[in-house]
Design a protein that fits this description.
Arc Repressor Mutant, subunit A, three-stranded antiparallel beta sheet, alpha+beta, 2 domains, about 15% strand
Length: about 180
C-alpha cells in the first residue's frame, strides 16, 4: 500500500465507491474500507488519529476527510442520506441517471493543454480514427467495477474478462497502419 492519496484523487475514490454500489446504500464503515482499497492506503494512513480543532480532540484523519467528501457530494446532489439510518448514504436518482458511459460513436474533448488532450469516448472510436503520431496514451477501462457487479450505470452482462478483451481489442487498432499516397 502507499501513502495517502492526493486531495483531488480522494474525491474520485469516494464517488467511485458509491458508483460501484449504485443500486444499494452504503454505510460509512463500508465506505471507509472501499475508499482505502481504491486509494491504496495502508493501515497506518487509515487509522491515523491526530488532535483536531481548538480543543485538540483526537480524531481519525482519514474518516474525517472521507466525510468531508461525502458532504461535497451531497452539496452537488450526487448522494443523499438514507432516511432513518445513521451513517448510511446512497446515490441520488439524479446521479444514477447522469453517471453513464458515453453514447457511441460520440467523442468529446474534455480539455486540451500543450501536453496533450483528454477525451471522453469509447477507445476504439478514437484509436481507429487517429492519423497522427502518439507519444503516450493513458487510458482506463470503462467502469472497471461495473464489469464485476452489474448496476443501472454499468454494462449489464459483461464479465471482467470480456471487459479486458474489449479494452485490448480497442487499443490494438492503434497505431494506425501507414497510408501510402
Amino acid at each position: 500500500m502507499t501513502q495517502p492519496a492526493a486531495q483531488l484523487d480522494m474525491f474520485g475514490h469516494v464517488l467511485g465507491a458509491y458508483a460501484a454500489t449504485a443500486e444499494r446504500p452504503m454505510d460509512n464503515a463500508s465506505l471507509y474500507q472501499a475508499v482505502a482499497q481504491r486509494a491504496g492506503l495502508d493501515q497506518a494512513a487509515v487509522t491515523r488519529v491526530e488532535p483536531i480543532g481548538e480543543a485538540a480532540t483526537p480524531r481519525n484523519v482519514f474518516h474525517r476527510q472521507v466525510r468531508w467528501y461525502q458532504q461535497s457530494l451531497k452539496a452537488l446532489g450526487l448522494i443523499e442520506r438514507v432516511e432513518g439510518k445513521r451513517g448510511v448514504w446512497q446515490l441520488t436518482d439524479k446521479a444514477r441517471r447522469d453517471l453513464h458511459p458515453i453514447r457511441r460513436p460520440l467523442k468529446v474533448i474534455a480539455f486540451s493543454t500543450d501536453l496533450g488532450v483528454a477525451m471522453w469516448s469509447a477507445a476504439e472510436d478514437v484509436f481507429s480514427a487517429l492519423e497522427v503520431p502518439i507519444t503516450l496514451c493513458f487510458t482506463s477501462p470503462p467502469y472497471p467495477c461495473a464489469c464485476r457487479v452489474p448496476t443501472a450505470t454499468s454494462m449489464p452482462g459483461r464479465s471482467s474478462t470480456s471487459c479486458v478483451r474489449r479494452w485490448r481489442r480497442s487499443s490494438s487498432a492503434w497505431p494506425p497502419k501507414p497510408r501510402w499516397s
